[in-house]
TrEMBL record:
<dbReference type="Pfam" id="PF07693">
    <property type="entry name" value="KAP_NTPase"/>
</dbReference>
<feature type="domain" description="KAP NTPase">
    <location>
        <begin position="1"/>
        <end position="124"/>
    </location>
</feature>
<dbReference type="InterPro" id="IPR027417">
    <property type="entry name" value="P-loop_NTPase"/>
</dbReference>
<protein>
    <recommendedName>
        <fullName>KAP NTPase domain-containing protein</fullName>
    </recommendedName>
</protein>
<dbReference type="InterPro" id="IPR011646">
    <property type="entry name" value="KAP_P-loop"/>
</dbReference>
Length: 325
């Protein structure tokens, strides 16, 4: 995924200028963004700016470019009076520029002259008035063939709410990458080499993670610190605590009561037929339909196999059962 996005960003002519990363908490969205930024920073043609979705994004972008990029600092001081925004020096001979659209166009034209590109990165993106406004402005900028690019990363429901916002058809069409489970064979091989455990233990550890990035880190960390070659109760306890505190408590708090109620039944098995679930809960397909849809969208359930219910999250059974005690 990282290589794919970087190749597209560096392509000539430009193929895509906006990307979306989506997935549940703990699947590696931030790690992926960091890896993309780290690699692009090695190429001096890239100017990378990290912003928050609840900030005045256009203003923050201009302020960052002014403060961090010397040739733009000089350009703005010499050519643009941005005193209305509290940026740069006040050029008395020039009227203050009060349109952020005009400011960004001028700055990006200068970036283009220097054969450079600006990448805006927004982690934990969610629908805010500021982000909606910026995406609409971004669409105008790329129609003018200006060298600005955007990567957003967020939870399924947050990215979806942005996609469905009025006037953001462009964002809906932007390339979207879903954070998929990691390859279990690769995890197994890494555990075996790094931790010095047997192939069987490495395979069991990999299986326990279900390819979930945070669990992969947690099992590796606590196995390494324990120095043990078997998976002990204390390792499981530490992993379960880390998953609960760092990820699952937040996921659970965002679920509706009906979704939590169904999960109490679903976690009893690794895989459960939908018909069995309906028998256990004494409900029907129409009642189950909406909770099922939401649990799949939130990345908790795997809905790839028709008529079968599976939990995607590792050690989630233990988490749910602990809450029932």
């Amino acid at each position: 995924m990282i290589e794919d996005i970087i190749d597209i960003l560096n392509s000539e002519p430009v193929e895509e200028q906006a990307f979306k990363l989506t997935g549940i908490r703990g699947t590696g969205k931030t790690v992926t963004l960091t890896a993309i930024e780290r690699e692009l920073k090695e190429d001096d043609k890239w100017i990378i700016v990290d912003l928050k979705s609840n900030s005045d994004i256009s203003k923050e972008l201009v302020a960052n470019l002014y403060g961090e990029v010397p040739f733009l600092t000089s350009f703005i001081d010499a050519n643009l009076n941005l005193s209305a925004f509290g940026i740069g020096v006040n050029i008395e001979k020039k009227s203050p520029v009060i349109s952020m659209d005009v400011i960004l166009k001028n700055i990006l034209n200068e970036v283009q002259k220097k054969n450079k590109k600006v990448l805006v990165v927004i982690d934990e993106a969610r629908k805010t008035d500021e982000l909606v406004d910026f995406i609409q402005e971004f669409q105008i900028l790329i129609r003018n063939e200006l060298p600005i690019y955007l990567i957003t990363a967020g939870l399924y429901e947050d990215i979806e709410s942005l996609e469905n916002a009025e006037g953001l058809t462009f964002f809906l069409r932007a390339t979207k990458y879903e954070m998929k489970p990691l390859n279990l064979i690769v995890i197994e091989d890494d555990y075996e080499k790094t931790l010095g455990v047997s192939e069987d233990i490495a395979k069991e550890l990999a299986s326990q993670t279900k390819g979930y990035a945070f669990a992969y880190q947690a099992f590796g960390k606590y196995m390494w610190e324990s120095g043990e070659k078997e998976i002990s109760k204390s390792v499981y306890a530490l992993v379960d605590e880390a998953l609960a505190v760092k990820v699952y408590d937040k996921i659970w708090s965002e679920l509706r009561d009906k979704e939590k109620w169904y999960l109490n039944f679903i976690v009893k098995k690794e895989s459960m037929a939908a018909t069995e679930l309906l028998q256990l809960t004494k409900t029907n397909h129409s009642e189950w339909s909406e909770p099922r849809k939401r649990l799949i969208e939130k990345g908790i359930l795997d809905g790839s196999e028709r008529g079968v219910v599976k939990v995607r999250l590792p050690r989630f059974k233990e988490y749910v059962e602990a809450r029932q005690k």
